[in-house]
Fold these 4 entries.
Entry 1:
Amino acid sequence: MLKVKSVVKEFSGFRAVDECSFEVEKNTITGLIGPNGAGKTTMFNLIAGSLKLDQGEVYFSEQKVNNFAPHQIARLGLARTFQIPKTLRKMTVLENLMLVPSGQSGENIWNSWFRGAKVENEEKVNAAKAYETLEFLEMEHLADEMAVNLSGGQKKLLELGRALMAEPELILLDEPGAGVNPTLLNKIAENILKLKERGKTILLIEHNMDLIMNICDRVIVMNDGKHLVEGTPAEIKTNPQVLEAYLGEKTA
Ligand SMILES: Nc1ncnc2c1ncn2[C@@H]1O[C@H](COP(=O)(O)OP(=O)(O)O)[C@@H](O)[C@H]1O
Ligand SMILES: [Mg+2]
């Protein structure tokens, strides 16, 4: 589904990602872990097209997508969430979902002038999809709540919902469990497992080791911008190299 080959990204001479390679199998949940500053979020930005690679290759479903623009990669079926949720606070939960761009005719000025009926119909479909997404997340009761009033965990769920509106094949989640209370954390874990049941592929950055160990099929460990090791959660848990990397953690 996803292949990253010898990827390099430098920021003013500092190698944030250093010849990093890994693969993500279709219909799996893969964890991407490593100490702060290991290069995980930078790797997500490179995959999703929000940063340009200095070297290396990224393949999405066998197609080379090096330096595609974010919207081009999104159209191929990739969605991502951010470490800090990007919800639009002055809108309701439902509006936040309905606003996700999806190449509707309403975005085209000519269509909105000449094909009003089509746009209206698409808006209905879009609203139905947004409700369906809320149902999936078990957040229907919050449809008309202003996003600003949500708890941190609920914002994370909404962020996941926004990613799902694009009906992606591969979903990149950056720390979905950060700052989330245990009840909502379980819900996020359940939702990620449900997505896998629906055939989706998930790559997940997370510091909560219980979440990683409970839901991941495979775990990839990054350190100093490099691919350190990978394996099953049980293998990673007992790997001395991983322990050493975390003990040497710098605060980034
Ligand atoms: N835009 C940027 N400019 C300069 N340095 C950056 C930038 N983004 C990330 N870095 C640096 O790259 C390294 C990796 O960061 P990041 O990918 O955010 O790590 P992680 O997500 O694993 O904690 C860190 O040392 C960070 O300070
Ligand atoms: Mg990060």
Entry 2:
Amino acid sequence: MNYNINSLIPYIPTNEYDAVAEEFLHLYCEEALLRPMAIPIEHIAKNELGLDVKYIRLSEECDIYGMTIFSDGIVEVYDPAECLYDSKIFKRKTILIDPEAVKKTNLGCRNNTLAHECVHWYKHRLYYKMQSYTSTRQAKYCKCRVENLPNITEDENIMEAQARGIAPRILMPRATFIEAADQVGIKCKNENRDAIARLAKMFNVSRQSVRIRLNECGLL
Ligand SMILES: [Zn+2]
């Protein structure tokens, strides 16, 4: 894997996203490369990557669905009971998921959000380690938004695209996904409504996520 030597962002062309997802599963859930299954992503986040997963509201407008925290420090979160933002201290290696905002994401699936934050930890922690040398009081974190804002940096854009691209490939690894699609009778140009629902259940992801993955694999 190549890194930008100044920023420590990994260079991952989109045609290598499948390979990165497979490398992740090889390390943390080998079984998923052998047979179609729902990836136990929360278990992997907690027990394999050693991340603390917390479900907490992050914004009033539900426009931030997840955060990964790379250094100890203060993070602003939203308290819906008081209708106020509040500063809280979180530890490094914490994932924050906003359960309300997740419903607004394109893929509307908690597992996809967990996988997305796992990719940030797996591939982007060196970048944030570099950043943490500049200020110590504020936690270093990435904030994942339902809609990308125009003012996010080029670095953040690259890493966000990588996490968005790799997360569904972890949850639906190419070879076993294609095998399962064949088993449930996915046919090119058919509506495939029931077969898609079965795949969504099998991999524990949303139907929309299955549809996108089928397209990527050239099966629809
Ligand atoms: Zn993200």
Entry 3:
Amino acid sequence: MGRRIRVRGQVQGVGFRPFVWQLARRFGLTGWVRNDAEGVLIEVSALSEGFEAALRAEAPPLARVDRIEASDVIAAPCAGFEIRASGAPGAETRVAPDAATCPACVEEIFGTGRRHGYAFTNCTHCGPRFTILTRLPYDRAQTTMAAFDLCPACAAEYGDPADRRFHAQPIACPDCGPRLWCEGAEGGGAIEAAAALLRAGGTVAIKGLGGFHLACDATDPAAIAQLRSRKHRPAKPFALMAPLEILLRHAAPSEAEIALLKDPAAPIVLLAKTPGLPEALAPGQATLGWMLPYTPLHHLLLAAVGRPLVMTSGNLSGEPQVIGNAEAREKLAGFADAFLMHDREIARRLDDSVERITPHGPMVLRRARGRVPATLPLPAGLPDRQVTGYGGQMKAALCLSKNGQLLLGHHLGELNEALTWEAFLQADRDYAALFDHTPEAVACDLHPGFRATQHAEGRGLPVIPVQHHHAHLAACLGENLWPADGGKVAGIVLDGLGLGPDGTLWGGEILLGDYHGFTRAAHLAPAPLVGGDAAQAEPWRNALVRLDAAGLAELADRLFPEAPRALLRRAAATGMNAPLSSSAGRLFDAVAAILGLYPARQSFEGEAAMRLEALAGPPEPGYPMGTGTQIDPAPLFQTLCRDHAAGLPPATLSARFHAGLAEAFATRARTLVETGAARAVALTGGCFQNARLLDEVLTRLQGVPVLIHRATPANDGSLALGQVLIALAQLEST
Ligand SMILES: [Zn+2]
Ligand SMILES: [Zn+2]
């Protein structure tokens, strides 16, 4: 009796078939393995429990085995064990995310073999994937490596199931693969020339996996200042790259943080700042974003420089990252003194992912390179149908459902920017073509002004509009595989802004609901958002209206003597360009402004709130907030201002603010669970990127089942996911 074994998960393009081949030989089994639309299919001549256990236990580093199903079959006799071609054309439907250079390849580039010093070394366990893919199935001819013919040595490795490079589609060597050069710097090889310039304080544009970076010496304040002034980027934190041994001289990551840094996804990981590096890298922030070198090019360059490098995205202000050589020369010439580039095209722009480790596990802030196009399983009870979710306006990303999987696409950015909008439209076509996706309906935000909403309405398909914070709640439920009939959850949604069904802007909510619907159980008392968008950029505007509402108008006059207060108050009174908003994000802005952290304009979204988090001292009892379903922050502001006047340190005030906000929402959510109205609490919305707030809320929810984001962002980057889940729930009931 033989066995037929189905392996599901991320098992294509990751060396799974040669792994099975080697395993079968080890266990003395005959039979075959092949890829098909559902994953990997194996037939072996006999039952071997050891073999089946090893499929999961010893799977290759980039594989993710979701499920193994095995049944007895009468196996056709085979002489040996063979790797068969895929079934029907188009059967291979998966591609893995891009993966950081594996230890074996790093050893090779620093060794003496034929790939010594070769910047494009890769194997089945590492290298570019999604960023070079032009079409599925994932095969060299359908990647940007198609232009490079294999030399005999590479061809032999490619064809040998015992080799680490068996069917490694981007396989390359100095004889046959892409070439590296440096424009604008003289002397030695490309790496040496770029390294010398970096050590001398210059800025180099570097072509990476998903786009160009701008790099400079992270230990050199003058180099950093020069890059900041050239990029007109006064304060937004720069990410850094260094090999682990150099990183450890400048940061003290925990074991979990080191594991995340070394993950094949190689995300930027936010690590607590330690003294030593220039403050200008991330002014006023408590953390610095670090990543390890993730391509051979990075490894070689970092080894030659011997210092940590700033690696910030190579783009014009507000625009997406540059990916083409010609585009880089044109757009980055004003920033970079030299260009380190190569002739392997980038098929798809992917920013670096940004993540952090909190006491409660990993947290994703930006989901892109290394994480996409990995899928999430569809929660039980939702129909397996094809829907596209178009997300929101900020931190745009798409989501597709198909074959029981949810594909949350990569971070695109802010859709008001023309080129990002173009990238959004391209991503829509791209994902649909790649995954042969033909949606029967599309989902989008309620906000009619969002470009993604307008795009959804123009598709000529049934449109399912979804309230912004309901989508946040559903995304959190979906990531946690909350079943469709799992019952209602109390969603604490602390966020920037989203349009509510009542026409006001929401953002500090407790929603009681699930995929099928919701009610607004409690919310922050609204305040006018005077000047609309201006209120987002200028925290003092939020402080003024909150102080006025708390009977502290005189204090507001003293705190903001230069501001056009009368104008603002008139607008607030008449409601002219002053929509009401219950946003929690704006509450953070208001407090930051009162503490003098941000009297004028923020230079990027969330800046004031991030500073407030960075400032928070040891835990304190929280400031009081009103009782009832309208959570009135007036008592909070009154107490905070008293403390402020008494000269208490801002660290204490920030700690008390975080605790007070957490207390108000956690108490109400806990009550909903304890009275049986909700089965669990879900924490979602952009404010939950704040690890302090997350911790304060979780502390107050001990003993209650709580769902949080770990693999998807709590911010608007997950809206599309929530929209798709809600749309599926609606389709099911029609
Ligand atoms: Zn490798
Ligand atoms: Zn070769």
Entry 4:
Amino acid sequence: MDQQTQQFVETFAEQSHPDVLEQFDRASLEELVAKHETPFMVLDLEEVDYQYKSLQAALPGVKLFYALKSLSHPELIKRLKSLGSYFDLATIGEVELVESLGIKGDQCIHTHPIKKDKEIKRALEFGCNRFVVDNLEELKKFIPYAGQVELIIRVSFRSQQAVVDLSRKFGCALEELPVIVELAQQNGIEVVGLSFHVGSQSLSPMMQVNAVRSSIAAMKVMNSVKWKFLDIGGSFPVSYQEDVLPIADFCAPVVEALADLPEGVEVFAEPGRFISAPSMIEVISVVGKAKRGARTWYYMDDGVYGGFSGQMFDHASYPIAPLKPFDATGEFLPSVLAGPTCDSIDVIAEDIELPELEIGDILIGKQMGAYTIASATEFNYYPKPKIVVVEDIFDPETEAL
Ligand SMILES: Cc1ncc(COP(=O)(O)O)c(C=O)c1O
């Protein structure tokens, strides 16, 4: 092969089979594999720091309320508490979890737009008095608690470009705001803020920018309310298979739009995925192997009923690669990665090209902290993967990649 062809082959190979694990310190990964039986997930607390600080730097002055639903591991919550984070709660279970970790109610907001009375009571008993509502029936539930609560009204902004459009299910139309505010005022219930969530894994900041602008306009029109907060929700994206904007670039136009807020209005955000997704990887191994037609099927010891459940519920497709070093210019075979359960839907990757693997080989899935273990099941009586907590598995030289 002449030099030019060789170069082309190498470049092409690099592009089509990028080294998914290049950011990691492979020696640390190998050490973990030697110590723990697969499948297991690795929660990297240094990465929690890194993501939290990056988002805080990109949204100066904004109070970050970590959305527990994306990943509620106590060690992650404790680390965020030590960083000064606030918390976004939605259930009694989440209230009790943060309470058990020494977090105070006034460091939290309760953002579930639909609640049972006992959920309101439990949150209040914990000391959390800020709740989200998005309709009149929900508002009426707070009449007995007038004087004790501060309400934030959630507005719906539909988003086609978010991977998960949350405004389909929750949020009122902007035009409904005056009626909700009026009923609150008639009953002596304090309305203090507006909130929205333009959808999780939002690929462009423009929906958030438009939602900020519309919310500010609504606040200015409804000047009978003493507005204290605008809550811009979650949505901040991470790279799975596709590249996304660096967080500073994603947030810059949002910050610019926030500059028009009336004086004295504080800004909240409720990030989940951005903090939790990059903080966890999953380590799985090949249990079985079969050639079926043109493809080699590898049967792994975890799949979409376990740690990879986000492929079903969160529409995510995780970058995945073998741990053993491979030759990027070598042979790659059309392969299928299947989970262990008896269900045929349990397939992690259908059209993946991989170097030949053997039974016992290890694969690593990246960006697996958000909406993964949170929705994992124990179907077929396979236990959920355990979570190993570490301080740093990233290679300091490539961490910024
Ligand atoms: C009310 C609320 N806040 C925050 C989040 C977290 O969103 P994300 O993971 O996109 O940051 C969600 C996600 O479902 C949510 O429903």
